[in-house]
Amino acid sequence: MATSVVDDHDSGALGLPHPVQPPRRRPRASLKLRNALVGWTFVLPNFAGFAVLTLIPVFLLFYYSMTSWNIFGNADWVGLENYSRLIGDKSFHVALGNTFYYAAFHIPLTIAASLGLALLLNQKLRGAAFFRTVAFFPYITSIVAIAVVWNMLFSPEYGPINQFIGTFVGGELPGWTVSKDWAMPAVIIVGTWRYMGYYMLLFLAGLQTVPAELHEAARIDGAGVWQRFWNVTLPCLRPTMFFVTVMVTIESFKVFDLILVMTEGGPGQSTLVLSQYIWQKGFEQFELGYASSVAVVLFLICIAVTVVQFLYNKRRDA
Amino acid sequence: MNRKIMTSVGTAAVAALALTGCGGGDSSSGSSDAEQADGGVSISLAGWDFASTPEFQTLADAYHEQNPDVTVELKEYPAGNDYDTALTADLAAGTAPDVFIVKNLKNYVTFEEGGTLLDISDVAGELDPATGGLSSMAVDGKTYAVPYRQDSWLLYYNKALFDEAGVDYPDGSWTWDDYADAAATLTDGIDKKDVYGAYLHGWQSTVQGFALAQSGASLDGGDFSYLAPYYERQLAMQDDGSQPSYATVTTNELAYQSQFGTQKAAMVTMGSWYIGTLVAEQASGDADTFEWGLAPAPQADESTTGMDNTPVTFGDPTTMGINAGIDESKVAAAKDFLKFAAGPDGAAALAEIGITPALIDDTVADTVFGLDGVPQDDLSRFAYTTHETLPENPVGPNTAAIQTILGDLHSAVMSESDPVDDAIADAQERVANEVG
């Protein structure tokens, strides 16, 4: 990261005058200690909760992933057995493939849709605030209600979506959530619809930081709308874009509730994703050790993708 | 010295938080006071959703009436699948009640292997062998939970719609082919839009439960070909329009109660719990008022049909077990409570609130058929009292994992995403690959 701790020796480099007499070591050290203590005391209540509910369970997760724990009794150490089982587990492969399938479409679609909405609603048009609220609604609506309504909309025989499509094209219409081929696209559509409002808000905030002078200068230089978007807006949005990309990526790799309430991973295993597989193994079949190893894999995927994004962003920064 | 004050105040606050945080956990278990002031014993019982599930309170009250020195205290858990999750957490933490319901049979082995259930073979030995589902609870000759309630799947039919279509009522001789024929004739004969001859709910049990019980196959045998004829028949029925398609049922979240209760379907196969629901809904007006009847579930072939045979159907018993961590002084009382709940007295108490107990004797049948709105014909009574009910989830270490795979098979086949044979081959391969 760009910020680095400035310690005593650097003060000269920053152009500050050296103190004439170096202060005595002792009071300085105790002042530092006291400051640190005060800081820690303020952070501690929050950190204690974080540690107990998140940090320790995450470390335990790595331990449990190497045991055959079934929730009762002792967690017997099995080493890497769970991981070698993962290599041959076809359901795990299906879940992994489906998770990447979802992510591969959900990430670009959500970014494109939310950025498009943000650009549109950043205009000074009448009722922009109203439409911003409307776009944000899906994000605050209960996921169960969303699933019920979308499932009805997607209903292959009576649903309005197929009736609408049917007026334009003949032949066989998509089966959506009750078809192996169409269930994932259906879930991706709903996922994108649900999250685009939230990321639109982030992009809107980012757009406020784009200096109007740059746009003006570009316009004077004869740049068209597209050129200004590509060469002015997007580069200025890069910090926001980076944040949004990281968030959308992690969010799509750990997609769970939407799938569970819309398709339960079906038909067959066509929408089974990793986090649902973890839940299935851990809380339906009580193989918590094995479920933990799947969770570790999901964790590593999220870390790896985020690190790549960080490195890419840093290179662009330089 | 402001800083100093702030530091000490902060530290004290944190210490206080930590202390109160730690102190909160101890007082909640509350089951340690075995001996009450009057010398009686108190045992705790885990149940769920007491507002809409009165059976636990009914059993506790009925038992206390007979045994005034024993009090059964209820501990409420969340309903649905959350019951198992919450109870499992408490069992693992050692804070679960003395007696608990093993709600889903497929988790019975997990509880037993986890050492959370007391061996109660002696209680099981004293129960009536006719208690439904009792024999299937034995693991290596020992029993760890006893059934107090067992619903069996029956055929419900709407007499008015049968009359309208001019179709003869079921007479107990039906095979599944007769059922499919009747559904088709009914759909044609009832001249109303969106009224079907039959309704098949979206659960995997509605097909697989019957197939497993009536074919005599074993769930963990690795061969699922026994499912094929049952699926072929249901697919044919959905294709010829004699029942709503699986796609419509699941995407529109159709409820069997409204489909049958508001006369959208002339027949439905469902568990016996629906008797009480249907009677209540007809009384409250949520369901239409029409004459209905019960018949034995359709059979695989004629060897088990007719009123001189015992029809084969399925249903999982709901069972009760004793927490292995129970206080020594309470074991006798807990076992006596189980004997009561699974015995004729418990059965009579349950029948009075419209619940089908595991032990169905004449008293139970008289009570159920004495309720207002329950059909009075002979076949209905025969269907309710006479059946061989096999478990949908036979007790075994791999049942939960196999049922997950078969659940995927169900949605793949019924949505017509995969042909039956491919889906069965796929499921067999997955079981070989992933289970045991």
TrEMBL record, chain A:
Compartments where found: Cell membrane
Keyword Protein biosynthesis part of the UniProt annotation: no
Alphabetical UniProt keywords: Cell membrane, Membrane, Transmembrane, Transmembrane helix, Transport
Keyword Glycoprotein found: no
Topology with respect to the bilayer: Multi-pass membrane protein
Positions of transmembrane segments: 36-64, 100-121, 133-153, 182-207, 228-250, 290-312
ABC transmembrane type-1 domain residues: 96-309
Renumbered residue ranges of the record's region Disordered: 1-26
PROSITE patterns associated with the record: ABC_TM1 (PS50928)
Biased composition (Basic and acidic residues): 1-11
CDD domains: TM_PBP2 (cd06261)
InterPro entries, alphabetized: ABC_transporter_permease, MetI-like, MetI-like_sf
Domain of life: Bacteria
Family: Belongs to the binding-protein-dependent transport system permease family.
Stated name of the protein: Sugar ABC transporter permease
TrEMBL record, chain B:
Natural source organism: Myceligenerans indicum
Pfam families, A to Z: SBP_bac_1
Domain of life of the source: Bacteria
Stretch forming the signal peptide: none
Lineage: Bacteria, Bacillati, Actinomycetota, Actinomycetes, Micrococcales
InterPro entries cross-referenced by the UniProt entry: Bact_solute-bd_prot1, SBP
Protein name: Sugar ABC transporter substrate-binding protein
